[in-house]
Design a protein that fits this description.
Blueprint: H1 4-7, H2 20-23, H3 28-35, E1 41-44, H4 51-62, E2 66-70, H5 76-88, E3 99-103, H6 110-122, E4 126-131, H7 135-138, H8 141-144, E5 148-151, H9 157-170, E6 179-181, H10 185-191, H11 195-208, E7 214-216, H12 218-227, H13 234-251, H14 255-268, H15 272-287, H16 293-308, H17 314-326, H18 332-347, H19 362-366, H20 405-418
Parallel strand pairs: 1-4, 1-5, 2-3, 3-4, 6-7
Helix pairs in contact: 5-6, 9-11, 10-11, 11-12, 13-14, 13-15, 14-17, 15-16, 15-17, 16-17
């Protein structure tokens, strides 16, 4: 018998739950599917957010041949066999290129990814990749440049509730029983926005109740999962919940807790590159300008781990972990870029002021490009008052220094520059 999560897998966009920014009315993937023409793309998001399902819906809707490879087991020969079959298919180029779906594409090495380049470039296949890892780190640049990247988010409470209600009402097995969803907070908390994990938990709890009616409460769910600790996606819990606890311990300046969660990941065989990348992110997001050396040390730890691997790699990771956890904290750079991005989304492509534009041709110079630009190094202290933002934003502030020693010095320096007489 198929697991509940597989039985409930959506077959159309109308049944698909979540990711409305991609598949809702007028959204980019829905428009692409409805047009009947799709290009190669990568779906990046946590487990259980609908990556595989979305790829299958695309192929079904467009009635295109669909092949699946898992990067865990497939090699270059498997990739070439699929490409050869695609080119030999009599429907090739009449209805569209066959779709090749590669799950966990981040696990493909460079040679395996290289083997896809020609087929994607020629249009022999439409490649859809799924990954839980940042494609910028894990997918080679030539392949990434030929594909769009779409980000899938963890499902929110409304999405998860909708899945639960649909399962108990429409599943061929669960609908035969009287199941009351009296409390669902525990299931949502344990699932962590993962639809597959949520449905696995629901199935486990119902089975644990034996025959008869089932009234699901948070207490029942918690007790059932404590009795069956490995019944629901241990790898997903390890990969996402523990890294979350690790980063939050660093952010909270608790080196002991941070080392504990690091040890949990080391003991479980977590990918050291995954841990090191998160340290770099934490150094930028959580420590930031309060201690700029944190980013240098985190990056050095990443390089060291790539050179020495396990088990010695745990030492530079531990050094970086303690350093970040005990550093002063600031998220001013993180907040600043978020504010700037929000503004760009609202104001669009505002023109660059003429005096800041490049003027490589005489025509551009005649049009005023670069005119009246003041070269800062020609002025005392290498500073001169000048407008650098677009006219519509000339008085806007995105970065606000926070109250730590390093940023107090930065604030004092900037205030001193701005207070100089013109």
């Amino acid at each position: 018998m198929q697991p509940l999560a597989e039985r409930m897998r959506p077959r159309s966009l109308d049944d698909y739950v979540g990711q409305q920014h991609l598949v809702g009315e007028g959204a980019v993937l829905r428009r692409m599917i409805e047009s009947g023409r799709i290009s190669s793309f990568i779906l990046w998001g946590p487990p259980g957010t609908g990556k595989t399902t979305l790829a299958q819906i695309v192929a079904s809707r467009l009635e295109l041949p669909f092949s699946t490879l898992s990067a865990v087991t497939a090699g270059v020969k498997d990739v070439r066999d699929v490409i050869d079959r695609a080119r030999a298919n009599p429907l090739f180029r009449t209805k569209g290129s066959p779709i090749l779906f590669i799950d966990e594409i981040h696990r493909f090495n460079k040679a395996q990814q290289d083997s896809l380049l020609g087929a994607v470039e020629r249009g022999d296949i439409t490649l859809i990749g799924a990954t839980t890892e940042n494609p910028s780190f894990e997918v080679i640049r030539p392949l990434l440049s030929r594909m769009q990247v779409y980000v899938l988010n963890s499902l929110d409470k409304d999405d998860l509730q909708k899945l639960l209600e649909r399962a108990v009402k429409t599943d061929t097995i669960l609908s035969q029983r009287h199941i009351e969803l009296q409390e669902t907070i525990a299931m949502m908390r344990f699932s962590g926005g993962d639809a597959r994990k949520l449905l696995n938990i629901l199935e486990l709890v119902v089975e644990a109740c034996g025959d008869g009616d089932v009234v699901i409460t948070d207490k029942l769910v918690t007790e059932s999962l404590q009795q069956n600790p490995l019944a629901y996606d241990k790898d997903g819990e390890m990969h996402y919940d523990i890294i979350s606890a690790f980063i939050k311990s660093i952010r909270g300046s608790d080196p002991d807790a941070a080392l504990y969660w690091l040890a949990r990941m080391v003991q479980s065989g977590e990918d050291p590159a995954f841990i090191a990348r998160r340290l770099i992110i934490s150094a930028s997001e959580d420590v930031g300008l309060a201690n700029p050396n944190a980013l240098l040390l985190a990056n050095a730890a990443f390089d060291a781990v790539m050179k020495i691997g396990w088990p010695e790699g745990r030492i530079p990771l531990a050094e970086a972990t303690v350093y970040l956890a005990t550093s002063p904290k600031s998220n001013s750079a993180y907040m600043g870029i978020n504010a700037a991005l929000e503004n760009v989304g609202q104001t669009g492509n505002l023109p660059v002021p003429l005096h800041l534009r490049n003027a490589p041709t005489s025509l551009m110079k005649d049009l005023g490009y670069g005119a009246e630009y003041k070269y800062a190094h020609d002025y005392p202290g290498h500073y001169v008052k000048q407008q650098y933002l677009p006219d519509a934003l000339k008085d806007t502030t995105f970065w606000t220094p926070q109250d730590n020693q390093q940023e107090r010095r930065i604030r004092e320096h900037l205030d001193a520059l701005k207070s100089r007489p013109e």
